[in-house]
Amino acid sequence: MHTPEVLLDDSDAVYDYYQRHQQKRWQALASYAVLARRFRPRVRFADGAAQQLKALIRSGRPVIYAINHLSKHDPYTVAATAWRSPLRTKIGRVRVLAKDELFTDPDQRRKVDMMGAIPVFRGKDHGIRAVNAAGQRMMDVCAHRLAAGDHLAVFPEGTCNLVDHTKVQPVGSGIGHIAFRAAKLDAAPALVAIGMSYGPRTDPGTEPSAEEVASAMVYFRTPVTELPPRPGDIARLVKTELQAGVDEAVARY
C-alpha cells in the first residue's frame, strides 16, 4: 500500500491510507512496555470504573477516550497509562489523533504510525476554511475505525493548555461529530474521560520537569455508555466529564 506524504493538499489520499492502515501490534506492545518503564504514571479509577472498562473492552464495543492536554510529553504518558491499565489488551487497536506536523520527519512518522496515530490538519495551523474538507474526512475515518472495532484517544482541547492546568479549555464539536457518525454506522461508542496532572504549575507556559512527567497522576472516570444524540451536546458532556477527571487528578497528585 502506497504511503502518501501527510500534506493538506493531498488529504484525500492521506485519509484513504489511514482508513486502512493497521499498526504492527507486537511492535506497539514492545514500545508501550518500554514507555511504561520510563514513564510511571500513577493510575487511579473512579469506583467501579476499572471493572466497567474491562467489561466494555471484552464486549467489543468501541470506546472514545477524552484526555486533557498539558504537555508535549502527553502521548508518552498516555502510552504508559495504557500499558498500566485495562487498555493493555487493546494496544495495537487504539487510534490517536495527532497534529500533522508530527508526520513530517520520517523517523517521527514511524513512531506515531506505530502508536496508531491519525493525522489532523488544524485550523490554527492552516486556516479554518482550508482544513474544512480534510476535517470532514478525518471525522469519517475515525467513525469507520470505531465501527471496525478500534478505540480512539482524543485530546479534545486541540492544543496544550497554557492557561490553567486545572481547568479544561474549550472543547470543539469534533469529538461529538465523530461519536455521532460512529453511531450512524451502528457502532455507538462509549466515552471515558481521563484526567491528567503533572503537579502544581507556577507558570502555565512552562513544561513539567522529567520527574513530574514520570510520576503523573492519571484518573479514569466511570464510562458513559449512553451519549446525547447531537454532536454539540456530546462535546459539552465531554468537557463536563473531563473537568471532573482533571479535578480528581489534581486533588490526588
From TrEMBL:
SUPFAM superfamilies: Glycerol-3-phosphate (1)-acyltransferase (SSF69593). Keywords: Acyltransferase, Transferase. One of its GO terms (molecular function) is acyltransferase activity. Transmembrane segments: none annotated. InterPro entries: Plipid/glycerol_acylTrfase. It comes from the Bacteria. Residues 63-199 form the Phospholipid/glycerol acyltransferase domain. The keyword Thylakoid does not apply. Signal peptide: none annotated. It comes from Nocardia halotolerans. This is Lysophospholipid acyltransferase family protein. The keyword Membrane does not apply.
